[in-house]
Amino acid sequence: MALPSINHAVDDAFIGALGDIVGDRVSRADSVREHHGRDQSYHAAMPPDAVVFAESTEEISDIVSLCAKHRVPVIPFGTGTSLEGHVAALRGGVCIDVTHMDQVVTVNQADMDVRVQPGVTRKQLNTYLRDTGLFFPIDPGADASIGGMTATRASGTNAVRYGTMRENVLSMTVVLADGRIVRTSSRSRKSAAGYDLTRLFVGSEGTLGVITEITLRLHGIPEAISSAVCSFDTMEGAVNTVIETIQCGVPIARIELLDEVQMDAINKYSNLDYPLAPTLFFEFHGSENGVQEQTETVHELAVSNGGGDFQWATREEDRSRLWQARHDAYYACLALRPGAGGMVTDVCVPISRLAESILETQKDIQETGILAPIVGHVGDGNFHLCMVIDPDDADEVRRATELNERLVLRALAMEGTCTGEHGIGYGKTGFLTAEHGDAVSVMRAVKDALDPHGIMNPGKILPGN
Amino acid sequence: MALPSINHAVDDAFIGALGDIVGDRVSRADSVREHHGRDQSYHAAMPPDAVVFAESTEEISDIVSLCAKHRVPVIPFGTGTSLEGHVAALRGGVCIDVTHMDQVVTVNQADMDVRVQPGVTRKQLNTYLRDTGLFFPIDPGADASIGGMTATRASGTNAVRYGTMRENVLSMTVVLADGRIVRTSSRSRKSAAGYDLTRLFVGSEGTLGVITEITLRLHGIPEAISSAVCSFDTMEGAVNTVIETIQCGVPIARIELLDEVQMDAINKYSNLDYPLAPTLFFEFHGSENGVQEQTETVHELAVSNGGGDFQWATREEDRSRLWQARHDAYYACLALRPGAGGMVTDVCVPISRLAESILETQKDIQETGILAPIVGHVGDGNFHLCMVIDPDDADEVRRATELNERLVLRALAMEGTCTGEHGIGYGKTGFLTAEHGDAVSVMRAVKDALDPHGIMNPGKILPGN
Question: Quick one: DSSP state of residue B3?
């Protein structure tokens, strides 16, 4: 049975007009539509009515103009690796796939920046940069597209040192909801010239415009890199090591927490034999001496908090293996219970509340009886729950949903946020007002001003949109 | 002769209604109005019709509600140290002076953040923090209020390492144009929960709302701090040392460039005897070893670029004297020509274009015959011109105005910005479209959505507003 079209404006004439813009790079095939209505989350997928594979900013401008004229929703699509239903075509419409726009446009080595098309992925970019001595540090785990990472304000394991997309996007080209093309700012490192449109579009999840080009800050590849793993007697000990490391001003590049359940999962999945205990994965960047100094400081802090020996990974292949295991945490969780599905969620709290937040969550997990390993970018106060459930078991789904809700409300009560990095999509719109109160009306006013007909990725970020 | 009232809505009845809110903390005295219509710039002052000294967010909400009802402009006022006419009451109205709101509300030592009222100044804050081991690094020179620094997206000498207000404001309380009170975000280090309202209000110059409380990131006071001064044979040598320092990833805390004219000025003003040559002022923060390593690297770079010996300032009083001289650069410029006035301007360019930009500017200065020392936060590509002119000499004013225009247009042609840190105020509205093109319409749409009656600091940022 063919997938139904849900937006009646997307008829044969409309598809013909799309074809006039992109030639044969428009598809209504079920498999293509299915693929583009789904991200990596547990949220219900919703296929768009059509998918276009755009090849330039100008094409996207023409596509959006056409959609605007016919009030047809527009949903930008990169690698589909988002986690809160960001790409589901809730009101049908046209999905603009940017994966053909995969060129690195300009590397400004002296300025340590790079201009890329939105379909370039982070791994592709770093491969391209390999001989420049520079790298792009933001690493959300998935090999996401830079466009998608910008749109969702991605961060990940390196954010504690290098910041998130908020700090690393210098400028963007955006196609607005009426098809106009604008550039959000110049390429200079700082500016006080008017409203910060760059930061307004970073994290706007396709609801204000389509990002068609991005200028990113790059960073010098450090002279020395060293990774280590350390197990702790208690969760408090591990978290306190994190807090003290940050407070001591150690410029640590990565500091990741995994609880004992998560360690069990990655041991099994990645064929490792770490102790089943709360564990920190560290990475240190700097000069040889700097790395030495950082590791000594952190090692002392770990020992005083009940940490065991550091297991080192200094050779590149060992480090890669270590971080691959960390990045495979999600798949490792799923493998704990073959046939089950994952409900992934994240919150972020001020670091002083991190231990309390995690310990109460662990208690909650135990009471709920849900299999839910904890893993987190804890240097920022950000942690994730991967709830491994049977999606066909209504009671289990209900318990997991409640666990998520309690996690979020606890984070908000601790002056935290309902999502540190996954974004709102349509999975967390219900929490937006709980977090922001009347400030949601400011977001709504901005949305209505820039997208008066509500065609840009409708149903995302703002509730009822 | 009493100053005329320029906004007819501000009549006795309106003042009476203001008095109902703030008691006797409302003034129509000429001296008070004069003081509040003027910043430290050369732009024409314009006194507001009345000044209120607010003491709480709730009071400001009531004041703005009253102003909204009567369509009376609202101009927030901190220390009046802005540089592009930000506080001039171009359409009359009510100036809200926040200097009575000078309390540090909460220091969260473990989270390294602090919540302050907008009238707290940066020096006051750092004095308050003295015993915590933490400090607030942003240092625009003037002892500005945190509210004003937030509103103008201030940065200054430490920005190359610690970022600007953009990176250091975690959250704000804002009174909107209709009097509603909102909080822009939670206190967590990162969030992906909706539009980045914090960054939208940072740098909005009072045109979107009144900032009534600010939560700031703090940083640990480094174990070791060391400052040095180094003279260069040529401007290129000095600038190339800056560029290479940044490219080598040296986490330098301050790297300031002063040209020979500026050095002459500060030698005379601050009773120093540095060589009259292009000069860099450095500051290094870190561990003892880290600072040692940084200074060795930078020293090598300086020598290879024609730099002389480093003159060290490691004792706190010597460092203070050095940076005080740097901060007095503006007054030193003015003292070069007693009775003259200063036209201060700044631009920011990608660092690869910095040498070219400064050298062409120097040529321009010479051709124009204007006395105009150059000083800059060059690690970010940001530099200033202090044009010392006779404000009553129409020809000199014209030549200075043209010099400024060429400086800005050259920066824009080099993918830079018309202002790195001073902001637009009403002095640079004419350059906004030259820099942002059609993106100005996006700023306009945001402005109209959040301030439909145009009462918030009218005439600032957006041309013709």
Answer: P
Instruction: Name the strands in the sheet holding A113-116, side by side, starting at the edge strand that comes first in the sequence.
Output: A104-108, A113-116, A209-217, A169-176, A181-183
Q: Check if the beta carbon of residue A287 is closer than 8 Å to that of residue A224.
A: yes
- Provide the phi-psi class of B94: left if phi over 0, else alpha when psi is between -120 and 50, else beta: beta
Q: What is the DSSP letter of B177?
A: T
* Confidence bin at A2 (pLDDT 50/70/90): low
Closest CA in chain B for residue A353? B111
Question: Which pLDDT tens digit goes with each residue over B167-199?
Answer: 999 999 999 999 999 999 999 999 999 999 999
Give the pLDDT score at A76. 98
Q: Which residues contact B174 (CB under 8 A, 6 or more apart)?
A: B181, B182, B183, B184, B201, B208, B209, B210, B211, B212
Question: Is B357 in the A-facing interface, judged by CB distances under 8 Å?
Answer: no
A193: nearest CB among B159, B163, B419: B419
Q: Which of A337, A404, A414, A406 lies closest to A381, judged by CA?
A: A414
Instruction: Tell whether ipTM is more than 0.85.
Output: yes
The bridge status of strand A279-286 relative to strand A224-231 is: antiparallel
Nearest to B417 among A163, A193, A439 (CB): A193
Percent of chain A with pLDDT over 90: 94
Q: Does B127 touch chain A (CB under 8 A)?
A: no
Question: CA nearest B443: which of A457, A65, A441, A198?
Answer: A198
CATH architecture of the domain formed by A224-330: 2-Layer Sandwich (3.30)
Exposure b/e, A412-429, CB count within 10 A at least 16 = b: bebbbbbbbbbbbbbbbb
pLDDT at B7 over 90: no
Q: How far apart are CA A120 and CA B141, in angstroms?
A: 41
Q: 10 Å Cβ neighbour count for A367? A: 11
CA A149 vs CA A40, A136, A206, B328: distances in Å: 14, 12, 11, 43
Distance CA A310, CA A296 (A): 11
Distance of alpha carbon A96 from alpha carbon A36, whole angstroms: 9
Q: What dotted CATH number matches B104-220?
A: 3.30.465.10
CATH, domain A337-427, list 3.40.50.360, 3.30.70.2740, 3.40.50.1240, 3.40.50.720: 3.30.70.2740
Domain A12-97 has CATH 3.40.50.1240: no
Measured between alpha carbons, how far is A380 from B188 in angstroms, rounded to an integer? 8
A16-66 pLDDT, tens per residue? 999 999 999 999 999 999 999 999 999 999 999 999 999 999 999 999 999
Beta strands in A337-418 (DSSP E): 341-348, 374-377, 382-389
Q: Could you count the other beta carbons within 10 Å of the beta carbon of residue A361?
A: 21
Residue of A149, A189, A408 to mutate, testing the B interface (most B Cβ within 10 Å of its Cβ): A189
- The CATH number of B339-428 is 3.30.70.2740
Hey, what's the torsion of the CAs at A146, A147, A148, A151, to 10 degrees? 120
Inter-chain contact A196–B166, Cβ cutoff 8 Å?
Answer: yes
Max distance between CA atoms of chain B, in angstroms, equals: 70
Instruction: Quickly state the pLDDT bin for B411 (edges 50, 70, 90).
Output: very high
Q: Please say whether the beta carbons of B28 and B15 come within 8 A.
A: yes
Query: Is some CB atom of chain B closer than 8 A to the CB atom of A303?
Result: no
Q: Which residues pair with A171 in a beta bridge?
A: A215
Q: Using CA atoms, how far apart are residues A34 and A405, in angstroms rounded to an integer?
A: 29
Cβ within 8 Å of B, A 47-76: none
- Quick one: pLDDT at residue A465? 56
B436 CB within 8 Å of a chain A CB:
yes
Q: How many residue pairs from chains A and B have C-beta atoms closer than 8 A?
A: 285
Residue A418 phi, psi dihedral angles, 5° rounding? -70, -15
